[in-house]
Amino acid sequence: MSGLTLQNVTKQFGTFTAVKNVELTVPHGTFVCLLGPSGCGKTTLMRMVAGLDLPTGGAIKLDGKDITNVPTHKRDLGMVFQSLALFPHLTVGENIAYSLRIRGVGKEEQKKRVDELLSMIHLSGYADRPVAKLSGGQRQRVAIARALAISPKLFLLDEPLSALDAKLREAMQVELRQLQQRLGITTIVVTHDQREAMTMADTVVVMSGGEIRQAAAPVEIYRRPADTFVADFIGMTNLIDFNADGSGASVLGASIPGLAVPAGLKSGIISIRPEDVHLTAPGNAPVTGTVTFVRDLGGTIETFVEAGGKQLVAVSMPNARPDVSVGQSVGVQLNPGDCVVLKS
Amino acid sequence: MNGFLQKAYFGLIGLFLSLPIIVVAGVSVNEKQDLAFPPKGFSLGWYGEIFANVEWRNALFASITLAALSAAVALLIALPLAWFLWRRHAPWANIFQLLGIAPFTLPPVITALGLLTFWAATGFYGQPATAVISHAIFFVTLPLVTLSLGFSSIDRSLVEAAATMGADDRTIFRTVVLPLILPYLISGYAFAFVLSLNEYIVAYMTIGFTMETLPIKIFNALRYGYTPTMASVTILFVAIAATIFGLVARFGDLPKLLGAMSSKD
Amino acid sequence: MRREAPQKLTDYGPLVFPAGMLITFFVVPFATMIAVSFFKRNPSGFYTPDFVFENYARFLSLFFGKVLGFSLFLAVTVAICCIVLAVPFTYLLSRAKRRTQVLWLVALLSILSLSEVIIGFAWSTLFSRTAGITNLLVMLGILDQPVALNPSFGAVLTAMTYQALPYTVLVLYPALVRLDPTLTEAARTLGASPIKSFFTVVVPALRNTIVATLIMVFIFALGSYLLPQILGRPQHWTLSVLITDQAIYQSNMPFAAAMAVFLVLVTLGLVALTVIAGRKGEAA
Question: Which residue ranges does UniProt annotate as crossing the membrane (chain B) (predicted)?
Answer without folding.
Answer: 9-29, 59-86, 98-120, 132-151, 172-195, 201-219, 231-252
